[in-house]
């Protein structure tokens, strides 16, 4: 198992990343993660994420993946981490008539915006601030914890803590995030995005997200570092989103 220092230095492409893959990463933060950015810019990125989720069907696709993981639970208690705009939680509540959803984000402005909308008054929703790396919840409180399109924001040491915490508070931890394609395809993807990055905040953050995305080998290493007893199932991840389901043995 990797040491704390080895995990902290691990490339986003994983311990076995190629030299080129190791170059295709950055410590630069997205607008969403910075404190020196105009709040209007951050809101524009969040709105764009919600818009793309609606237009391209991501909210529905990710909700279907999440509900499949709790198909055998009559009244599932679901925790959404890094909710941002709340689109996924809204879909989960629409699609499952008895599910309860705790909608969380680490950013106070996002939590306030979600609480001010329909989710703030929904009888089966609770909106609150929560850090995915240090979850303020009891052991086994939820049937499922969901972290969608936000895992890449975290550096490796913090990302490993999500595996620790997520499998502590929930029976299953579901992570859905950007794929990290092989280096040649990654270069091609970046080349199509870079010309627009200086002008569109959403594309700017998309480029950084791509460079910070974890590979499947990196995800396995993070889970193993968090606890060797955590079982990890992965699927997708070449051109489609990576899907990770993590759980602890009973």
From TrEMBL:
Residues 78-169 form the Methyltransferase domain. Pfam families: Methyltransf_25. It comes from the Bacteria. InterPro entries: Methyltransf_25, SAM-dependent_MTases_sf. This is Methyltransferase domain-containing protein. It comes from Mycolicibacterium vanbaalenii.
């Amino acid at each position: 198992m990797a040491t704390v220092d080895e995990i902290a230095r691990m490339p986003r492409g994983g311990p076995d990343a190629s030299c080129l893959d190791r170059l295709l990463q950055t410590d630069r933060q997205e607008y969403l993660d910075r404190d020196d950015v105009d709040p209007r810019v951050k809101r524009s990125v969040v709105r764009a994420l919600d818009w793309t989720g609606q237009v391209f069907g991501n909210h529905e696709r990710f909700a279907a993946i999440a509900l499949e993981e709790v198909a055998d639970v009559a009244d599932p208690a679901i925790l959404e981490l890094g909710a941002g705009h709340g689109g996924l939680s809204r879909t989960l509540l629409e699609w499952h008539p008895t599910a309860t959803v705790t909608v969380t984000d680490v950013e106070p402005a996002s939590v306030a915006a979600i609480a001010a909308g329909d989710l703030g008054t929904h009888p089966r929703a609770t909106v609150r601030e929560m850090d995915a790396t240090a979850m303020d919840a009891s052991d086994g409180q939820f049937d499922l914890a969901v972290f969608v399109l936000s895992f890449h924001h975290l550096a490796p040491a913090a990302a490993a803590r999500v595996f620790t915490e997520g499998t502590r508070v929930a029976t299953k931890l579901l992570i859905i995030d950007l794929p990290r394609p092989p280096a040649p395809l990654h270069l091609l993807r970046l080349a199509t995005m870079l010309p627009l990055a200086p002008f569109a905040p959403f594309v700017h953050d998309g480029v950084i997200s791509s460079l910070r995305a974890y590979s499947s080998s990196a995800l396995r290493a993070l889970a193993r570092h968090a606890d060797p007893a955590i079982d990890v199932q992965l699927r997708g991840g070449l051109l489609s989103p990576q899907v990770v389901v993590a759980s602890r043995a009973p």
